[in-house]
Every structure is written in structure tokens, then in C-alpha cells.
UniProtKB/TrEMBL annotation:
GO molecular function, one term: thiamine-phosphate diphosphorylase activity
Keyword field: Magnesium, Metal-binding, Thiamine biosynthesis, Transferase
Binding site for 4-amino-2-methyl-5-(diphosphooxymethyl)pyrimidine: 36-40, 68, 107, 136
Function: Condenses 4-methyl-5-(beta-hydroxyethyl)thiazole monophosphate (THZ-P) and 2-methyl-4-amino-5-hydroxymethyl pyrimidine pyrophosphate (HMP-PP) to form thiamine monophosphate (TMP).
Pathway per the UniProt entry: Cofactor biosynthesis; thiamine diphosphate biosynthesis; thiamine phosphate from 4-amino-2-methyl-5-diphosphomethylpyrimidine and 4-methyl-5-(2-phosphoethyl)-thiazole: step 1/1
Reactions accelerated catalytically: 2-(2-carboxy-4-methylthiazol-5-yl)ethyl phosphate + 4-amino-2-methyl-5-(diphosphooxymethyl)pyrimidine + 2 H(+) = thiamine phosphate + CO2 + diphosphate; 2-[(2R,5Z)-2-carboxy-4-methylthiazol-5(2H)-ylidene]ethyl phosphate + 4-amino-2-methyl-5-(diphosphooxymethyl)pyrimidine + 2 H(+) = thiamine phosphate + CO2 + diphosphate; 4-methyl-5-(2-phosphooxyethyl)-thiazole + 4-amino-2-methyl-5-(diphosphooxymethyl)pyrimidine + H(+) = thiamine phosphate + diphosphate
Ligand binding (Mg(2+)): 69, 88
Gene name of this polypeptide: thiE
Pfam families (UniProt xref): ThiS, TMP-TENI
Protein's name in the database: Thiamine-phosphate synthase
HAMAP family: TMP_synthase
GO cellular component: cytoplasm
Cofactor note: Binds 1 Mg(2+) ion per subunit.
CDD domains: TMP_TenI (cd00564), Ubl_ThiS (cd00565)
Length: 284
């Protein structure tokens, strides 16, 4: 997930003369590394048929595949995950259905929603709409200032979405996004592969020109309470602070060993560590 940079969401009304799979395959060949089936019109059985076809395509091409709105379809089609909006199922319910390994993405329109999604255990968020868009005409633009806020405050991957096309992608990246998501600019393009290649080019050039931040360079990949995460934290205390647990009544285990709280500042967290924070339940 962390490697994914260009997310393309389907929208068959944008290409009435071409098939879903043809267009999504072109997008993937152009550089989309995560794709979503978003279809508000089909009955569920038809949706499942499309989801299974997209699963087959994405398996063949090695791309992540997400189903919009429906955890049951995501499960039945063996998708990599589901995308949920603010009015869709909450993350906890979807997590119960999908288990710990499938991805859950959440739409967010402002920073408090992003922080709530992160705390609820989302794997990534969509941030937007950055610009007004005909794909979601009733949703006001969150603007580039939300992208800058998210870049400063959100730790899980976020995809800027909404009205993004090759002509404004550099502005969105300059505001702090490192991942982009598009519907109409790709699937409504006469050449979806080329549209993706252009978006991907901006993302990759921007990434190459950003000096690696010391914290990014030092990020360790850990498992925290069963979930794979990346963190700049160097010690158990810093990790607890990142999860806002430093002042809470929790017990910490590192690789199966309980670590006394007094040692948290001195215990390093390293690549591959398994950390458990266990909450006390009840009063006292
Ligand atoms: C990656 C991504 N981000 C946002 C959305 C929008 O989801 P939602 O707000 O639930 O709206 P609908 O797409 O369901 O109309 C998305 N689908 N994907
Ligand atoms: C589904 C969704 N959620 C927020 S904006 C949006 C639509 C993005 O579509 P487009 O890339 O065509 O503006
Ligand atoms: Mg939705």
C-alpha cells in the first residue's frame, strides 16, 4: 500500500463506447498501481461479476484492487480491500467483516475526519475533493489547504482526489500530496494509458526532487497490534506517543516481552519488531 502512488477509480459513464476492463487495463499499463471498482448503477449480482473480472485483471497485472462501498462484494471477489465514505459502514464494522489483512480506505473532506479515520484503523484515506468535480457534484471542494494540512498531520498514506488532471497535478503535489487519485481525467480520456503516464510522471518527478527527509529515511516497518505500520519513532516511548498512548494506562510488549514503562524511553524500536499495546479495561 505504501508504495502505491497513482489510484484510478472506475466510472463507466465516462467511456460508454469502451469496456470497463479495457479502460482499467490501459490505466494500469500507464502506471496506476491501485484501482477501484466504483459503480453506483449496477445491481449487486452484476457488481460482483464486474468485481471478479477486475480481480482477475489486477491479479494478472499485479495491481491492488479495491471495491467501493461494499465490504461483502470485496470479500466475495477476493479484492484487496474496500473504500468507505463518511456515510458508508464504519471502519470497525468493515474490519470485522474483512479481517486484519484487507485494506480499508476512508473518504475524508477535512482534517478531523482524517484523524478519526486514522484512529479507527483505516489503512489509507482519500482527501478531497481538492477541486469541484462533476463526478461528485454535490460535494464542495476541500481545496489545496486541506492537502497541505493532511501532509503535515496524517501518518497513513493519503490520496488527493477530486478534479485532478495532468494540468493541475503539479499544484496538488506542490501542496504536499505524494499520491494522486483520479476518475474522469483517466477513464474519460481518449487515451487512459497516456493520461496515467502523465500523472505518474509528475508524481515520480516530484518524488525524485524531494530531498529525503531524515525522518522518512529513518522509518522502520513494524507490526503494531497486528497491523503493519511504518514509523519514524526510534524508541518505544516515541511510538507510544505517536499512538497517543504515552500517558494512558497501557502495557507494552516488544517481540513478546513486556517492557516496563520506565524503560520505554531507552528501548529502541527496530525494523521487523512486533509491538503490542494492551489497554486496561474498566476503572480503578
Ligand atoms: C480513493 C477514494 N476516495 C474517495 C472516494 C469517495 O467515496 P465516498 O465519499 O463514499 O463517495 P462515493 O465514491 O461512494 O460516491 C472514493 N470512492 N475513493
Ligand atoms: C469519488 C470522489 N470522492 C471525492 S472526489 C470524487 C470524484 C473524483 O472524480 P474526478 O477525478 O473525476 O474528479
Ligand atoms: Mg461510498
Amino acid at each position: 500500500m505504501h508504495e502505491c502512488k497513482l489510484y484510478v477509480v472506475s466510472g463507466e459513464n465516462y467511456h460508454p463506447d469502451r469496456g470497463l476492463l479495457e479502460v482499467m487495463e490501459a490505466a494500469i499499463r500507464g502506471g496506476a498501481d491501485i484501482v477501484q471498482l466504483r459503480d453506483k448503477a449496477s445491481p449487486k449480482r452484476e457488481l460482483l461479476r464486474k468485481a471478479r473480472a477486475m480481480r482477475e485483471l489486477t491479479r494478472r497485472l499485479g495491481t491492488l484492487f479495491i471495491v467501493n462501498d461494499h465490504p461483502d462484494i470485496a470479500l466475495a471477489a477476493e479484492a484487496d480491500g474496500v473504500h468507505l465514505g463518511q456515510d458508508d459502514l464504519p471502519v470497525a464494522s468493515a474490519r470485522q467483516m474483512l479481517g486484519p489483512d484487507r485494506l480499508i480506505g476512508v473518504s475524508t473532506h477535512a482534517l478531523p475526519q482524517a484523524i478519526a479515520a486514522e484512529r479507527a484503523g483505516a489503512d489509507y484515506i482519500g482527501a478531497g475533493p481538492v477541486y469541484p468535480t462533476g463526478t461528485k457534484p454535490d460535494r464542495p471542494a476541500a481545496t489545496l489547504s486541506y492537502i497541505s494540512e493532511a501532509a503535515r498531520a496524517v501518518r497513513i498514506p493519503f490520496f488527493a482526489i477530486g478534479g485532478i488532471h495532468p494540468g493541475n497535478a503539479e499544484d496538488v503535489l506542490a501542496a504536499g500530496a505524494s499520491r494522486l487519485c483520479a476518475v474522469s481525467a483517466v477513464v474519460g480520456s481518449p487515451d487512459p494509458e497516456e493520461a496515467c503516464r502523465r500523472l505518474r510522471g509528475y508524481i515520480d518527478r516530484r518524488q525524485a526532487s524531494r530531498p529525503p527527509s531524515p525522518s522518512a529515511a529513518a522509518r522502520a516497518r513494524l507490526t503494531v497490534n497486528g497491523r503493519a505500520v511504518e514509523t519514524p519513532a526510534a524508541t518505544l516511548l516515541e511510538l507510544a506517543a505517536e499512538y497517543r498512548l504515552a500517558d494512558r494506562r497501557v502495557v507494552a510488549e516488544r517481540n513478546g516481552e513486556v517492557v516496563p514503562r520506565a524503560s520505554w524511553p531507552d528501548v529502541p524500536v527496530r525494523e521487523g519488531d512486533r509491538i503490542e499495546f494492551v489497554h486496561f479495561v474498566g476503572g480503578g
